[in-house]
Amino acid sequence: MNLTRKLEILADAAKYDASCASSGAKRRDSSKGGGVGSAGGTGICHSYTPDGRCISLLKILLTNVCLYDCHYCINRRSSDVPRARFTPEEAIQLTLDFYKRNYIEGLFLSSGIVRDADYTMEQVIRVARDLREVHDFQGYIHLKTIPEASQELIEEAGKYADRISINIELPSEKGLRRLAPEKNLHRTQEAMAGIRTRIEAGREEKKDRARKKRRLPRVYAAGQSTQMIVGADRSDDATILQRSDLLYRGYRLRRVYYSAFSPIPSSSSLLPSKAPPLIREHRLYQADWLLRYYGFAVGELTERSPGGGSNLDLELDPKLSWALRNREHFPIDLNRASREEILRVPGLGVKTVDRVLGIRRWSAIRLADLTKLRVSLKKCLPFVETSDHSPTRLQLEGDRLRERFLPPAHQLEFDFQGAATTAEGGMRISSSSLAR
Amino acid sequence: MSRATTIDPDFSSWRARARELLAAEIPPTEVFWSETGTRQGELFGEDDPGLPTSRVGEPNLADSNPSESAISFRVPKSFFGLAETVACHTHPERWAVLYRLLWRMTREGERHLLVVSTDEDVRRVRAWAKEVGRDLHKMRAFVRFRKVRETEEGREQFVAWFEPEHRIVRRNAPFFRKRFAGMDWSIFTPDECAHWDGRELTFSPGVSQSEAPDFDALEDLWRSYYKSIFNPARLKLRAMQSEMPMKYWKNLPEAELIGDLTRDASQRRDEMIDRPTREPRPAPKNLYLEKLEDQNSIALVREAEAVPEQETLSEMKTRAECCRACPLWERATQTVFGEGREDAEVMIIGEQPGDQEDLAGRPFVGPAGELLHSVLRELGVSREDLYLTNAVKHFKWRPSPKGVNHRGPTRLHDKADRGEIAACRPWLWGEIAKVSPRVILTLGNTAGQGIVGPDFRVLRDRGEVMPSPDLDFSGKAFATVHPSYLLRLPRGERGIERAAFVEDLRAAFSHA
Q: Which of A96, A197, B192, B412 minimizes the number of CB atoms within 10 Å of its CB?
């Protein structure tokens, strides 16, 4: 099989992993040593495909042969996709060739499970190790790890990788038992716990060496992330977000990626065969942000939501939807309220909130200031007070406030680019800016 | 009266001139900025004779003038970074606006001006900086090198063609040097070209695209990758275009595929949906899969019951890993069973694992554990000689309160309730029965309740205690506070309480 064909199969096999970040690595570059590569700044997306997703890393599987039978996965043993396998040398050469042409930030390497977890991990690690040690490659490396692999191997993987990740896949043990019989939620979380401990130990080591002014060899990956598939099992949004919240708190994940279950060429009879729930995925990303940066709790986002109490509101973004259900918190006085309170105003993001706090130290906030900050007045006006505006009680209490925010029905026909329509509704969204 | 001042269009020229003007107290309303190489600059020709004439590159007054520091210390550091970025912009008014900002900050007392994002000057400068920043970023993203040759020493040589919107080649060149140090490269643009030969970064005037190579054998492979990584089931053209605007497409080898991929997407998606599904295939014979299946089908312990007499500690531990007798397992990482000598004379019982113990799967490895270790060291006792465990084996936690701290959301220790202590009691009593220590020392309320009963209160019952008559234990039992109680005390009170804690431990150990 020629290299092009292998690449086609093994990229196709890897594309359902949404993780793409190339940021957060330790700062380093190739100015010493003979190789290429740098990392440590913000990540760079080198291209975009028409699905709105970025290409930042060369995302491939080492092989798509797999012992496991996870029903949502294109590579499960029951699937009839063509199978291929890169030699470590091929994967290494591809990475270097692409990197030198500035197509990519680095490598995202995963693998189907062959023979056993440890053997597979060893193959994956070998590629990363040779890239670092033989080719002096300083670019970004993200390694997918297998929770069943031995601690020593996960440890070694972290020595070469900037990020390691284990996919939790589904938010509940029940779902996993049905759809991914080989996997186990608690085993995965145990492995994540080990990784968090190692990452933090590496950070301490780094501080310690910095104090002693010693040069630091590569210590350990800078972060871990995971992915959850949305819409393959019956888990509701509350269950998904509870799981994310637990993962962020317990294992300090950098990111939880949500991947709308997407039809695959050879799908399982246990799974829904329909267009991916893209809007739901988008709402989950928004809610995820609110959990991490806006001080919201999971319950607040789903309670009393039109999504049925345990699902997010699909029609409106979760913050706006929360505000409409909790009008007694408003209006918020932008000239007096605390940061926490202002963060809850629909239409105001973290950056804008911090700008408002900066400006109001010197002059009172007026509506014109919001316009200059490019805030959507339509969205936030009913919820804020400024020195020259306060919403009428009627407005804030009116039954029609929600309708005011709903997208016009005809948008369905206009804004849609065919395939982006889903069974769940008619809003065009772009989650890629969030997904980064 | 307005004064014309002509500078080369770069940051250092502007800075030098701005310093002179500022030192001479010339207000922005009187300065007319123009650039060399532009028509305006040529029209005005000579500079205002009222100012010391200095051009870029020449050493000038301000660079060596000690008074310059007097100017710069009143300007926020961030301003110069911002100005340097804005200098790369092509907008003709940028020099004037930057000077006006500088003037307002230094001469009109608006030192905080940059914070006021709504000020018109600040807003414009920030918008320009953002545009330049975006251009810098997109150049880093969309430059595509093509290999031209390999030197005899095996050094690969690459050339790229790129058309930036602003004058960013010099600003961006160090990024490419650091990233591609191990190869020779040139980036050609219409304005200016940058070159790296492994030793030195050099610049030359702009060239036309025809000078750049138009082929690289690897691009077919790159296009194959692009095609394969695209998921036709989730077409989102606008999302793509907002990040990769069409103006860049002409220099991206992969962009020629976009049309076809987009056109065929919905058909490919429908084909996938319509294809018949496949039934699961039975597992092949594989030792590893069998092992996994064994692990995954271990019997869950659904309710607390007394541990069988013949069971060993390690068998008990394995069983406890699957304990579901109370709901705590669900949000914890793992069961944290006791550890230490199986024939220890002293058994120390804590309350429940904390954040660190939950991650490590071992008792007393967090901050409270550290405190306990330091006290043990003082008493000359080694952890290895003891058996350490907790009354409750899963970490019970509640979310850190709302509010956004830099560490992000965390888990806070929460008190186990009566039912949870009772559910875990068989494990604790099982450990006591197996280890059969001479002395038990409980730390904290929960631990005391684990062996005495729900009415135990540590601050009242501290000292020797009577274990529940149902517990099969003939030694002596003592109770004291948990080390985490000491950690929560204000510093001033901690000394006395710690000393009392040490004495409690000493008293307990004296019976071993």
A: B412
